[in-house]
Amino acid sequence: MSDKKALELLQRADKTAQSKGWFSGPKFDEAGDLYEQASNQFKLARQMREAGEAMLKAAQMSLKLGEHSDAAQRLVAASKAFKKSHPQQAVDALTQAVGLLAELGRFRTAAGHQKEIATIYEVDLSGPKQAMQAYQLAAEWYAAEDSVAMANGCLLKVAAFAAQLEDYTRATDIFESIAERSVDDQLTKWSVKDYFFKAALCRLAVPDSVGAAQALERYKDLDPGFASTRECRFVDEIIADVTKGDLQAFTDHVAGYDQISQLDNWKTTLLLRIKHQILQAEDDLT
C-alpha cells in the first residue's frame, strides 16, 4: 500500500513541479514537500533506491528556491536511503551536500559528512585511494574549525591508507607528526607508542633500516617512556634483523611479539612486506 501511495505522491509532485499558474511560476515548495512525502512512503515500503531518488528531487526543488540549507539536508537524507544498497549514489548525494554546506560556511558539519563519504569508500566500496582523499579533506575542514582530535583521527586514517598504497613517506610523516603533538597531551599520550611503532614499520618497508634506527633513537628522546615499551624493543629487534638480513631471527621476533600482543591486519601486512625485503636482499646476493 505504501508503494502505491508513494507513486501517487510522486506523480502529483511531478505535475506540481511542472505546472504554471496565470500569475505565478511552478510551485517548487509544494512539489518539494510532495517529493519528500513520496520518499517517506517508499521507505515504509522498503524501496530505498526509490526513496533516495524521490528525496533527490525534493533537494532539487529546494535548490530552485535558493534554499541551500534545506537542499543539503534533503541530500543527506537521500544518501541515507541509498547507503545500504547503492553506496555510490549515497556518496554522490553526500558530495553535493558537502559542497552546499561548505558554501554556507558550515565547515564542521561538512567535515562530518565528508568523513561519512570516506567511510562509505572504505567499508562499502573498497576504494582505499578515494577513502584516503576523502579523509584528508575531512581532516583539513576539521582543522580549520580547531577540531584537533577529529582532524587527527582522519589523518591517522590517511596515514593507514597511504601505507597500504605504499606511500610510506606520507604515512611516516603523519604518524610522527601526530605522535610528537601527542606526547604532552594527557588524553592522547597513551597512543604515542602505537604511532611511533607504525612510523617505524613504514620506514622499514621502504626499506630504510638506517633511517628507522635513527628515527627510533629520536622517538626515545621525544618520549622517554617509549624506550621501555614492548613496541620499542620489538622494533629495535627487527631493525637489527633487517640490517643483518637474518630472516629466521625476524620471523622468530614477529612470532614472539604476536603471542603477547596480537598484531592487527595492517601491521601484519607491513611486516610481510618487510619480510619480502629481506628475501629480496638474499636473492640479490645470490
Quick rundown:
79% of the residues lie in helices and 0% in strands. It has helices at residues 2-18, 28-44, 48-64, 68-82, 87-103, 107-123, 128-144, 148-164, 168-182, 192-205, 209-222, 230-244, 247-260, 265-285. This is Vesicular-fusion protein S17.
Explain the overall architecture.
The longest helix has 21 residues, at 265-285. This protein has helices at 2-18, 28-44, 48-64, 68-82, 87-103, 107-123, 128-144, 148-164, 168-182, 192-205, 209-222, 230-244, 247-260, 265-285. Helix 11 (209-222) packs antiparallel against helix 12 (230-244). It starts with a helix and ends with a helix. The protein is elongated, with a radius of gyration of 26 Å. The chain folds into 2 domains: 1-81; 166-286, Serine Threonine Protein Phosphatase 5, Tetratricopeptide repeat (Alpha Horseshoe). The protein has 14 helices and no strands. The chain is an all-alpha fold and 286 residues long. It is a peripheral membrane protein. Its main location: membrane. It comes from Coemansia javaensis. Required for vesicular transport between the endoplasmic reticulum and the Golgi apparatus. InterPro entries: NSF_attach (IPR000744), TPR-like_helical_dom_sf (IPR011990).
